[in-house]
Design goal:
Strand content: 5-15%
Largest sheet: 4 strands, mixed
Distance between the termini: 31 Å
Low-confidence stretches: none
Mean pLDDT: 95
CATH architecture: Alpha-Beta Complex
CATH superfamily: Spore Coat Polysaccharide Biosynthesis Protein SpsA, Chain A
Number of domains: 1
Shape: globular
Radius of gyration: 16 Å
CATH topology: Spore Coat Polysaccharide Biosynthesis Protein SpsA, Chain A
CATH class: Alpha Beta
Number of strands: 6
Helix content: 40-55%
Order of helices and strands: HHEHEHEHEEHEHHH
Structural class: alpha/beta
Length: 207
């Protein structure tokens, strides 16, 4: 799971929550995503690739393993690095990349996606907009070969990964980049960190 420094994260959310609150929401999203992933029985371990000290400390406190972003070369380099670090603990491990901005993530829905992914050497799940990707998996010995960013649904398909076609896994698709995305996630029901932050902010903004 990749997480850029909080001060730089979620720039498109500024209009909805304000620049002062934007880093706090980025952290809340990550906390809820990690907590939900760790609660999924099919998940053995959650590694977060980040150089943000605050985020690293808070995510480690709930059970994530923190991997420094030593490549420092962007999202896909961070994901490939994280996958290598995970496999250094067990070369035969299947690995999966998951966005860190899925605050409505449900463990059961993630479990369904992981079960479906297990049928393919590499597999991905498109985001709610149908353009990007929120999940990518690879079984050993295949590399993850991530191509996140922009129209990554097409990029992952072109790379040979199979698209996971499931209904009823909206929480795994619902990443949050904009105010509209956040409202959609809130309608699904977000985790406690995001809910508490939104609840504290809501009266101030008059929502």
């Amino acid at each position: 799971m990749p997480l850029k420094p909080l001060a730089l994260a979620k720039s498109r959310l500024t209009a909805a929550v304000g620049d002062a609150h934007r880093p706090r929401f980025a952290l809340a999203f990550a906390l809820d995503t990690v907590a939900a992933a760790l609660a999924c029985p099919r998940v053995r371990d959650v590694a977060v690739v980040t150089d943000d000290r605050q985020a690293g400390a808070e995510l480690a406190a709930i059970g994530a393993r923190i991997v420094p972003d030593s490549p420092g070369a962007g999202l896909n380099a961070a994901l490939a690095h994280g996958a290598r670090r995970v496999r250094s603990r067990g070369a035969a491990l299947a690995v999966a990349a998951l966005n860190a901005d899925l605050p409505a993530l449900r463990p059961a829905e993630l479990g369904r996606v992981l079960a479906a992914a297990g049928a393919f050497p590499r597999a991905f799940l498109a985001d709610a907009a149908g353009i990007g990707t929120t999940f990518l998996s690879a079984v050993a010995p295949l590399d993850l070969n991530p191509a996140f960013g922009g129209p990554s649904r097409a990029a992952h398909g072109a790379s040979g990964a199979a698209e996971i076609l499931l209904d009823g896994v909206e929480s795994v698709r619902r990443d949050v980049d904009t105010g509209a995305d956040l409202r959609a996630a809130l309608a699904l029901g977000v985790g406690p960190a995001t809910a508490a932050l939104w609840g504290a902010l809501d009266p101030v903004r008059g929502h």
